[in-house]
Design goal:
Number of helices: 3
Number of strands: 0
Strand content: under 5%
Order of helices and strands: HHH
Largest sheet: none
Structural class: mainly alpha
Radius of gyration: 16 Å
Helix content: 55-70%
Shape: globular
Oligomer: single chain
Length: 95
């Protein structure tokens, strides 16, 4: 259940951030991401993994949650939200 709790927290943070913004989200292209975007994401995720694991090395847990993996969970959540937005834009365009 710890992963369900983590997803709930991620969703609440995302919804809270959306609630603070006024106006619609910027449009997202329906095509695949560019190579530079993928490379930038990989570098950002690798850097975040390194920085998180300095304080919480592998095997360190709190309430059965290993924070050393949380940068990857957040990255996967962001990618999932992005894919869902892309799919909804495609469906709205009728493609």
């Amino acid at each position: 259940m710890w992963f369900t709790f983590a997803l709930l927290v991620f969703s609440l943070v995302w919804a809270g951030g959306r609630g603070l913004r006024s106006g619609p989200l910027a449009s997202v292209s329906a095509g695949p991401p560019s190579g530079w975007l993928v490379l930038g994401f990989a570098l950002l995720l690798g850097t975040a993994d390194f920085l998180v694991r300095v304080d919480w090395p592998l095997g360190t847990n709190w309430l059965n949650m290993q924070f050393c993996y949380f940068s990857q969970y957040v990255g996967a959540f962001v990618v999932g939200v992005s894919v869902a937005r892309r799919r909804s834009n495609v469906a709205a365009d009728g493609q």
